[in-house]
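Data deposition worksheet. Section B asks for the primary sequence of the deposited chain exactly as it was used as input, without tags or linkers unless they were present during the calculation. Section C holds the resulting structure in token form. Section D is free text for depositor observations; keep each observation to a single sentence. Incomplete worksheets are returned to the depositor.
Section A, Depositor: J.P.
Section B:
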Amino acid sequence: MKCAACNVENPAAAKFCQACGVPLAMARAPAQPPAVEPPGAEPKSAGLRISPTVIGIVLLLLISAVGAAYVGWTLLEDSPQPGATAAVDERAIEEKRKKAEQDRLADERQKTADAEREKQRQLADAEQAMKLAQSKADEDRRRAEDAVRGTEEQAKRAEAKAREDARAAQQAQAQQQAQTQQQAKAQQESKAQPDKAQQDAKAREAKAREDARAKELARQREERAAAAREARARQQASATSTARPVETAAPAPAPVQAAPVAVAQAPVQTAPAQNEPCAGLTGLKREQCTSCNRHSGLRRSACEDRAVDRYCETRWNKPGEPDCVDPRRR
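Section C:
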């Protein structure tokens, strides 16, 4: 509906113009044209004929008009005046405009606050994400370092285990070699025992022969010394006989022939030679020296261990045997 004052289009349900505030009821009620009598109608007569029916109708109309006037006056009193209504409408419109502006400003402020909160939230989320990423990176770095350290430790343990295995293998090999050498030596000794006995017997026989020869040589030296003494005695006697009267000299006794000495075949105990390597050693040291002097290195060590076992077999942890003390043995 258009406003009659400003010709602005307004909604159909509006009572006042939204542009100027003029009531739109004036535009809705068009002015009624005056009644026009149709042409050819007969003019009424000037004389009046009043009947009781007409009087009753007139009275009824008058009463109706008075009632209508009273009702209209009451409604007019109750209804606001057009100027006041227009002012009220303008104030309402202004209040609506202010409220709309306030609502718009409030909406803008709310939107700004929401945008600021959203920005703060995004910043907080970004900071939290950065912290999480940093913590994750730190955790990954720590895990990588732990993995590297674990790998290094495993490598060290593997290397140490390899060294221990190699050392154990070397020791086992050395023990096996020592056992093999001991077995070979035992076999050699078992094989060489008859030869050694024969060699010892031959050595004893040679020693006995040398002793007998030495005794024979000593006897011969004594005989020659006795003969020399007898010759000197004869010379002295002949020298004295030239100075005194000649006397009949007694015949010289015949030289005594010594009986042949029988060579004994029994073993002869001789004193230790000065160049013997084990001279002056006693106890366990002499046992080790006499048994292991011909060996060297690992063989000598194994031989000395066997010598300890042989020497201390019946002497372990006994008084007066300092070389045979071992707490593990009873």
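Section D:
The first helix runs from residue 25 to 28.
The chain has a mean pLDDT of 76.
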